[in-house]
Amino acid sequence: MWEHRRVPTLIADILSRGTATIAGLILFAITTVSLMRTIIVPRALRSVVADAVSKAVTLTGWGIARLRREYVKRDAVMAWAGPSILLLQLITWLLLYLLSYGLLLYGISGQSLGDSLRQAGSSLFTLGFADTNTGEQTIIDFIAAATGPIVIALMIGFLPTIYGSYLNRETAVTDISVSTGEPAWGPEMLSRHALSGNIEGIGPDFRTWADLSARMRMSHTMYPVLIWVRSSRAFRHYLVSLLAMLDAAALLVSLTQTLDRRPAFGLLIQGGQTFEVLYAVAAHRRSLRSRLPFIGKNLPSPEAEQKVESRLPGWNRKIIAVEMASDQDALNGLGADAVAALSLRERDGITLPREEFDKAVDLLRKSGFPIERDLDEAWNQFTAARSRYEYAAYALCELLDATPAPWSGPRRVPTPTVWPNRALDTIPAALEILNEDTGSDQDTSTPTTDVPPTLDTPEGT
Asked: Mean of the per-residue pLDDT values for the chain?
């Protein structure tokens, strides 16, 4: 009678420990692959574990931040998202390794699951308070003892890479804020360059940001956590700065004929592709079929051949051909769903009203920036250029709750637009300071009759 009761118990124990061994091996493989795809392999690879941690952190952060109506307070909450993702990814990998080693020890030993997890934790964190007497368990303990320090060392080595890319990006954002204002706005950049008599300095700024766009496209896809790491100031954001630079380039291309437009074209190509790629990585909601592991990426899609039409205004067909070819190259690496969404939205044109464009042109004209095209023609060219990046930029700014700058789209929490201090409006105050310094009632270098009138603050985004 005792033997009959003991057999089912023995079978259940064997099945339980066998299942635990298999589960431990699978969990070990999943965790190791996730660690390698996120930190080690230098490619834009996705990890289910890392993505789950990132999603949980950002949803939690946004749930807290949306309770704050003031943007500065929301920004203070979301500033914790990027660093929290890094820390929790490390903790998650360690916990998964702890569970996998605990299951393996439970499967090959006769001890309970609790004792197995205790022994695994002792070895993984090199505490050494749990002993073992069998060779199989000793091997697992040795492997676990090596795993903990390796994972921590990899994360420590990973942080300089992340923050190195972050500092390069933020240095450029800080540097250009002198021209674009805070928050950044494209027309203000052109206005300040014109007022300072440094229109020729626009080209080097465009080249700098074209190079930065290419580096961002690489670093922010290889390490998606960088997308969530915010600037050190609430009214600076790398997406807003990039959008402002693209708007400045689009305005220069649309309004002028005599200025060198090649740097602007280079920035529009590089920056537009960066917005498209970051949109596909972070903002596009993938369909269920595309999420299937090893299968979804290979499933045919009726929309897979739809590519974003290139309508960047150019001075000849050769420039347009180069832009079209490079854009197709960038899109070839994106998912079919993301490409189809971009194609559909970009063909719809832009949402920025014409009156906003006219107010910006008025600002530039009063600043001394050359306006060399008919405004209707310029509007058509500006629309064609902006349609390549507006949708992706607005989607990313909304997702990340970026600084509510002019011309940067809506936010999930309705937020008033924050305008930069416009240099044109401060000319009267600057003249007063200059007159006080010279001890004269009149500025002898700039006649007071030439001071441009102050513009009314435009409404809307």
From this structure: 83
Whole-number pLDDT of residue 68? 87
Peptide bond just before 183 cis, omega within 30 deg: yes
Judgement on whether residues 95 and 13 belong to the same structural domain of the protein: yes
Whether 427 is covered by a domain: the verdict is no
pLDDT-derived band at 9 (thresholds 50, 70, 90) equals: confident
Calculate mean pLDDT across residues 270-278. 92
Separation CA 143–CA 154 (nearest Å): 16
| DSSP assignment string, 268-314 | HHHHHHHHHHHIIIII----HHHHSTTTGGGS--TTTT--PPP----
- pLDDT band of residue 315 (cuts 50, 70, 90) is low
Residue 406 belongs to a domain? yes
> CA-to-CA distance for 80 and 70, rounded, in angstroms?
17
- Structural domain boundaries, residue 335: 181-287+299-413
CB burial string 55-73: b at 16+ within 10 A, e below: eebbeebbeebeeeeebee
Residue 223 domain flag = yes
CB-CB contact of 184 with 177 (8 Å): yes
> Are 242 and 280 in the same domain?
yes
pLDDT of 7 > 70? The answer is: no
| Contact indicator for 140, 105 with CB cutoff of 8 Å | yes
- Which percentage of the chain shows pLDDT scores above 70? 80
Residue 284 pLDDT > 80, yes or no? no
Q: How far apart are CA 265 and CA 314, in angstroms?
A: 8
Dig out the tokens for 324 from the structure: 């079209």
User: In terms of domains, do 373 and 332 share one?
Assistant: yes
Do 203 and 338 fall within a single domain?
Answer: yes
Report the chain's terminal Cα–Cα distance, integer Å: 82
Q: Tokens 């920036």 appear where?
A: 369
Of all residues in the chain, the percent with pLDDT exceeding 90 is 55
Does residue 329 share a domain with residue 258? yes
Q: What CA–CA distance (Å, rounded) separates 79 from 73?
A: 10
**In angstroms, how far apart are the furthest CA atoms of the chain?**
115
Predicted local distance difference test score (pLDDT) of residue 13: 67
Tally of domains within the chain:
2
Q: Does 280 share its domain with 345?
A: yes
- Residue 339 predicted with pLDDT over 70: yes
Residue 420 lies in a domain: no
Q: Tell me, yes or no, whether 228 and 279 share the same domain.
A: yes
The tokens 């290979």 sit on which residue? 298
Same domain, 222 and 320: yes
